Every structure is written in C-alpha cells, then in structure tokens.
Amino acid sequence: MAHSACTELSAVQRRAALQLARAAITAHLAGAPPPSVPAELQSLQTSGLFVTLEKNGALRGCIGIIENAGSLGEALCEYAVAAACRDPRFPAVSSAELPALEIGVSLLQPPRPMTVASRADLLRQLEPGVDGLVIEEGRHRATFLPQVWEQLPVAEDFLGRLLQKAGLPEDYWSPRLRFSRYRSDSFTEADTPAP
Question: Which residues form the AMMECR1 domain (predicted)?
Fold first, then answer.
C-alpha cells in the first residue's frame, strides 16, 4: 500500500520520532542492532529529512537527505546515526556525550526549482525564516535548512555562507548556478516535551 510523504507530525508522532532518533544513536554507540520503528511512525514516508544534534547550544552534527528519503522510521535511524558519527565537520559523538545532546528533526517538503535572473533577484525572492535553500553548480552543492536563518537573518549573509559551504566564494555568481527552495517542519526535544 502506498503512503503519501508526511511533512507534519502530531505531538505523539514528534515525540516518537525524537525518541527513535535518540534510541538509534544509543544502540549504534553500544554496538547493538537498530531499534524497532514505533507503531506511530511505521506507515509514514518522508520526502526529505535532516537530523540535527546540538550540545550546549552549539551545532554538534547535522546530516540528512533533501529528497526521496522513503520510510520515515528508517530514515530517522540512518540519519541520526550519521549526524552523530559521520558529519565530517566533527569527531564522532561518544556515549558520554549523549545525555548532553539535544536532538532536532526537520521534515522537508520537496524542493521547488527557482528561476532567478541575478543575485539580487534571488535575494528578493527568498523568504527569511521560512525558506530552506539548495544551491548547485557542477560538483558544488549545499543546503541550509530554514532554521539557519536564526543565525544568519540577513539574506545576503545567508546566501554568502551557503556558497562557502558549497566550496564557492561567498560573493560568487554564475548563470550556471541552480537554486531550489523548500519549507520544513522542524522540532526538537526541548520544544516537544514528554506528556
């Protein structure tokens, strides 16, 4: 039976998703098999998904997939472990660190290609605080989730840092650059307390 991709979860499903992400990291660090997907999440599919880890308010890992993630439960387990152990910007999380980590999940809507005539045109079209952005040119590709606007609220800064993340100069512009934007439903353990 086909299931449509979800981009928003109920409070119960959000708690289950965060608990599953934490359980997946805990199991991986202990060398145990991945946890079972809870019933609340078993039939759900997702287009894109990112798992973000923070420690004392600072980024500690963030890995995900922009499109075609498939099963929400399986993707949560995979990308939670990847955020903890395979983000190239950070050493792998240790078991001792796990209690200090705050886990966040972002469910992405499918990206929509943008038509832009210039850098100024792109900046005019972006909706700060709302749009996630993907940039691509050849082997250069990067994305910022919508919540990155909290650290970079000015569109020019947001774009410049994203270009740098893709391995390009922050003032780079080329007609070969391609852009897509998306929205997401993001939630963390701090804003999704247990009942």
Answer: 4-195
Q: Which residues contact 184 (CB under 8 A, 6 or more apart)?
A: 7, 48, 50, 106, 107, 108, 109, 132, 145, 146, 147
pLDDT at 95 over 70: yes
Q: Which residues make beta-bridge pairs with 51?
A: 63, 105
Cα Rg, the chain, nearest whole Å? 17
Question: Which residue matches tokens 């850098």?
Answer: 119
Q: Packing angle between helix 11-30 and helix 72-85, nearest 10 degrees?
A: 50
Q: How far apart are CA 49 and CA 107, in angstroms?
A: 5
| Residue ranges of domains in the chain, CATH in brackets | 11-109 (3.30.700.20), 112-184 (3.30.1490.150)
3-class DSSP string for 164-193: HHCCCCCCCCCCCCEEEEECEEEEECCCCC
Tens of pLDDT along 135-167? 999 999 999 999 999 999 999 999 999 999 999
Between CA 127 and CA 131 the distance in angstroms is 6
Contact 77, 146 (CB under 8 A): no
Residue 14: phi and psi, rounded to 5, are: -60, -45
DSSP bridge pairs for 59: 54
